[in-house]
Write a structure and sequence with these properties.
The protein has about 425 residues and is of the alpha/beta class. It contains 12 helices and 19 strands. Strands 2, 4, 5, 7, 8 and 9 form a 6-stranded mixed beta sheet that branches. A 6-stranded mixed beta sheet has the order 16-15-12-17-18-19, sandwiched between helices.
Length: about 425
């Protein structure tokens, strides 16, 4: 293929036409000369079949962070490679300019092309196309062919932000207090028997072990510790309600953030954590693993998860929970307090679930409803919007009351406090020995 330089060279030659006796033979001769030079330049360009490329760099990155992927271009021919390389990614990968890179690679040498990526969406972000244009030394012609060189496959997995991890030290400190590492263990700190010790003034007389006291001929009291080795199941509703944007992110992303914080805290407490993402099918499932690999498995399972615009099948949700969790567990259902979804879908099958497990329904509070009801409407359309907001809040309260009647604990909090409130509910249930 020819470049603009060939046309420019032909234009410069046309300036000499007044010096020729006849213009038409001159045009033909000039055109033939430019074409001959272009053909020679094309022949001298480095062949594409001798160029090989491979990638290395980051495979995973958190949403909002930056990653770098390096492309190594090796010139295996005996000619210098002069050209332009374009490495194309999907737009949401956030590739930084320049998008085209000039190459000057000596025979047998390798040149590195670094691409900086700042993804704007969670999930898998692949490199889609690689284009290389090998130009001749005169710059009149170039070689370019689809699929040459072959584009090395590379996918950058964008993990959830997990902004709530900043709360983990505080929650862990509370867990240690609950566990008796920073305070004296006594009655009310849990429900599992720990040890016997001598009675001291101020101990609850209800904790005295009379049989052990009779054997030792001394007053002994039981000490307790928080429940351990319990099962915690986080269930993410990925149906249509999870696509609603709460502030700057979908409700599903806020649920993921809270689920990751809860999983990190529960694993430190010695509990087993499982995760399930369901709408009309199971989208992700993670079984409990060791503390070191649990969060890694969770974030990798959650990264490609996206809301599905279908009505969630709560019959399937309850069936999967009952099938997977044979023993009593704490089931935290991340969904929306919406009458249509919960009233018709969850409430009819909730008694089966609540009879076997401790259930917590966690929902992100929509700040738009609060703003609409907090100020007096100035226009007629504002009054209609405020009335609709009041109605939505009233329906949400009715759904909460219906869930509470089945023994379900409801966590309804704004996005900035949602993850913290969910873990507080877990710690409260652990303190009361109700897991």
């Amino acid at each position: 293929m020819l470049t603009w330089r060939a046309a420019a060279l032909l234009g410069l030659g046309a300036l000499t036409l007044p010096l020729w006796p006849s213009p038409w033979p001159a045009v033909a001769l000039l055109t033939a000369a430019v074409l001959a030079l272009s053909a020679l330049d094309w022949a001298l360009a480095a062949p594409l079949h001798a160029v090989s490329v491979h990638r290395d760099g980051d495979r995973t990155v958190r949403l909002g962070a930056a990653a770098t992927v390096t492309l190594h271009v090796r010139n295996g021919s005996t000619r210098r490679l002069r050209g332009v390389l374009r490495d194309a990614w999907v737009p949401s990968a956030g590739a930084a300019p320049p998008y085209a890179h000039e190459l000057h690679v000596a025979p047998g040498a390798t040149e590195r092309v670094v691409t900086a990526l700042t993804p704007t969406r969670r999930g898998d972000r692949p490199a889609v196309r690689l284009s290389l244009r090998s130009a001749g030394p005169l710059g009149l012609a170039f070689r370019q062919r689809a699929g040459r060189p072959a584009a090395p496959a590379w996918t950058l997995r964008v993990l959830p932000r997990f902004e709530s991890r900043r709360l983990l030290p505080e929650k862990t400190a509370r867990l240690r207090v609950l566990d008796g590492a920073l305070v004296t263990r006594g009655r009310g700190q849990g429900t599992e028997f720990d040890t016997l010790r001598e009675y001291v003034v101020g101990d609850d007389v209800r904790s005295i072990d009379w049989r052990a006291s009779a054997r030792r001929r001394d007053v002994l009291v039981r000490t307790w510790r928080p429940e351990r080795d319990r099962r915690v199941l986080c269930v993410l509703d990925t149906g249509r309600t999870s696509a609603v944007r709460i502030g700057d992110e979908p409700r599903l992303d806020a649920a993921m953030d809270a689920a990751l914080l809860l999983a990190a805290l529960a694993s430190r407490a010695g509990d087993r954590v499982d995760l399930l993402a369901v709408d009309t099918a199971v989208r992700a499932a993670v079984s409990g693993a060791g503390r070191q690999v649990l969060l890694t498995r969770l974030v990798n399972a959650l990264a490609p998860l996206q809301p599905t615009l279908v009505e969630t099948d709560f019959e399937l949700v309850v069936g999967e929970v009952l099938r997977r969790e044979r023993k009593r567990a704490l089931v935290v259902l991340f969904t929306a307090l919406e009458p249509g979804a919960l009233g018709e879908g969850l409430l009819p099958v909730l008694p089966r679930l609540a009879a076997r497990h401790r259930v917590v329904v966690a929902a992100v509070h929509d700040p738009v409803l609060t703003r609409l009801t907090a100020t007096a409407p100035a226009r007629a359309e504002d009054a209609y919007a405020a009335a609709a907001a009041w109605r939505a809040l009233a329906e949400r309260d009715r759904v909460r009351a219906a869930l509470t009647r089945h023994g379900v604990e409801v966590v309804d909090a704004p996005a900035d406090r949602f993850a913290s409130d969910v873990t507080d509910a877990y710690l409260r249930l652990k303190t009361l020995g109700r897991l």
